Amino acid sequence: MLPLSGKHILVTREATKAHTITRLIEQQGGISIEIPLLHFQGIYSEENEKVMNQLSSYDWVFFTSTNGIHFFFELMEHYHHKTFEHAVKMKFAVIGEKTEKVLHDFGYKAHFIPDTYTGEHLGKEFNEYTSESCSILVVQGNLAKQSVVQELSNRNHTISTAEMYETNVNVRMKEALKKSLHETSLDIITFTSPSTVDAFVELAEEEWTEELTSIPCMCIGPSTQAEARKKGFTYTIIPEYYTVEGMIEATSAYFNKKG
């Protein structure tokens, strides 16, 4: 028997990325219930147009999410195609292997990846990596944690941040979520960002009960776990590797151990 056989697993990830985690769940025999609680959109502003026109002034561009990469290149194409010439000369730092892969898919190489895939370690390990003072652009969403900026600020870098996309709660999923919580006996909930936790709590409304908070939560990393605990979930788990593959591996291990 596969480790997730018959297990009902709620996938809260944004729709275009949910299929990846669903495929992994189904490969282990689980039943994926996709309810995408977030959606994203680029921020087309004079400020971001200015950032794009000044790309040549940055030594490094930092990405803390795959969304940041998507919208960075989307805005780059929107504002000025010649900025691609600057991108070829820039160095990129990414938070983990998924962001590295997405950057590679756009045709660019990641020059720095931390050993531990968190914003805190991205900043901390970069400071250990270089003794130089660099001009750095950190690409973010509107709800981004500032841990990478805080760590980078411990050195004499020149740091700029740019909010290039918005994270919005997918209110159209409210009824679907409430119906699922009411009618399905969930074995585990997956959260791939602190924002998914917040959206879950906001949309659950009257379904938010003490019984619900006792459902195990598989969180992609420490910041997501901290948000889940803050919101009241009593049993949270994080994988050894902060990826969706790591999440499903840890979920399988959890049910194997539980029996």
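The record above closes out task 2.4. Task 2.5 opens with a second protein, given below.
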Amino acid sequence: MRRKTKLIHGGIAGDVHTGAVSVPIYQVSTYKHEAVGVHKGYEYSRTGNPTRHALEELIKDVEEGYAGFAFSSGMAAITAVMMLFNSGDHVILTDDVYGGTYRIMTKVLNRLGIASTFVDTSDLANIEAHIQQNTKAIYIETPTNPLLKITDIQGASALAKRHGLLTIVDNTFSTPYWQTPIALGADIVIHSATKYLGGHSDVVAGLVVVNSEQLATDLHFIQNSTGGILGPQDSWLLMRGMKTLGIRMEEHEENTRKIVEFLTNHPVVTRVYYPGLPSHPNHDVAKKQMRGFGGMVSFDVGSAEKAEQVLTRVRYFTLAESLGAVESLISLPAKMTHASIPKERRAELGITDGLIRISVGLEDADDLIEDLAQALA
């Protein structure tokens, strides 16, 4: 089954009880037992719900994994995955991960004894140099947010296996339409499903896919124990959004290609970050592991003042956090998504005050380019 077909016919199709083409919203908290311990597969909706199960089967299929899990947000998904580890364990993470990931590792999980080191994972030697005796996993974001750095998933996974570590990939920017990390050797894939998978800025959700029965058993135990599940209505919304993921990602890509060409030739723009550019330092790796380069691009306009000017002048780009929706969004990472990262750390990473991130939507590309042109003037 090809990808667009799998997005529509993957997982559980329709409803066997009524013939409904769309999986119903099972708005229910508990289920009748025919006798103590005898039920029809569901006993309580924190443990399992038919609508959520249909979504979990769908993301399992499109990510080519063993089992899928749906959570109430991307951060709930990340938290559940990190609960696989114990006090005293250590995790290596990509240095310019999403600010929320950095925050939970350095402000919350560190208090529970889970240590972390942030390194430039686009250099595999750099990962290996930071492996400690208590390291349990390599956590990769590729492409990264907001600098669109690329890590070789296959290389990092092979390195992790040699050291007995798990490989975890945040696949939010690429989606399974453009990149399938488990096929490249990863053990766990995480999504902020609020973004491209939902695609319409109307649902907050997180998804996880694992590659083995043991990880599935362990993560289901954590999901059921901690309770950060996705409700049935949001599960249904997410499945509806995923049916059009393929055509949306292709259109995002086409619009982004035109905007990147405009930005690279604009005299005010000092640098453009996009893995589809041949000048990107890991363009060859991106071509090897991605079927498309996506709809996210960051660019530097040299100063906070110029960036503020662009943000206040744009008409079709909405100033908002989040990404991956049908409407184009614009943000200033240093003051928004990555504000929780200390200023000196942002400076080390290259997240300057003049760095602007855009999520290219599905509007007419010519309108978006004209909008950026007048905002940059």
